[in-house]
């Protein structure tokens, strides 16, 4: 199994809603990531989990709250979002945190979020 | 700081060869990745270079010159399905988990 899965594929939410994005991998990877990607732009790193602990937070607003309950699952909890938060949210995983650079990241298909 | 530059758009003809360049200025270097991303899909890994030289993988090759801060992705025998964005990316930070992407090069392959 060399796949990262994400649910839902599409999400439309109002600014006052609370929702969660889910990511799952069963490759034994111990680093997991959330990225935000706007149209025609590259992915921008939001959070990194290494061995289920948050290791990088790229100054993301607190209305985005990540959670990594175990090595296979990653969540992004969303509340009181703004319309400008509409984007493709990508999850990724890689093998071993701390190993020099060469671990490629495997990306999920993303959740396309629209905030109305 | 880290800066990665690549052309915004390129066009090429089916069956031809195209070279997509990437230049980087970084405070440290831990290799360079190339990813392919079709519209509306996830990025997929193409190559990783950490030493100077050319690495070939089928129709795709990637080159690195660390002294020049330069890399390129070479696509041979272009096919229509190669129309996609090609992202140059470099890992940074403690544990090198922080992947910084260039803006991406949108390649359009025409018949």
Give an overview in words.
The complex is a heterodimer of chains A (116) and B (111). Chain A is mainly β and 116 residues long. Chain A has strands spanning 4-7, 10-13, 18-25, 31-37, 44-50, 53-57, 64-70, 73-79, 87-94, 106-107, 111-115. In chain A, strands 2, 4, 5, 6, 9, 10 and 11 form a 7-stranded mixed sheet that branches. Chain A has a 4-stranded antiparallel sheet with strand order 1-3-8-7, with no helix packed on it. In chain A, a hairpin with a 2-residue loop joins strand 7 and strand 8 (73-79). The mean pLDDT of chain B is 92. Helix content of chain B is 0%, strand content 58%. The N and C termini of chain B lie far apart (41 Å). Chain B is built from no helices and 11 strands. The interface between A and B is medium-sized, with 28 and 26 residues.
Largest sheet of chain A: 7 strands, mixed
- Structural shape of chain B: globular
Number of helices of chain A: 0
Spatial gap, N to C terminus of chain A: 36 Å
Largest interface: A-B, 28 and 26 residues
Mean pLDDT of chain A: 92
- Oligomer description: heterodimer
Computed Rg of chain A: 14 Å
Percent range for helical residues of chain A? under 10%
- Strand-pairing-aware structural class of chain B: mainly beta
Radius of gyration of chain B (CA) equals 14 Å
Q: Provide the low-confidence segments of chain A as ranges.
A: none
Count of alpha/pi helices of chain B: 0
Sequence of secondary-structure elements of chain B = EEEEEEEEEEE
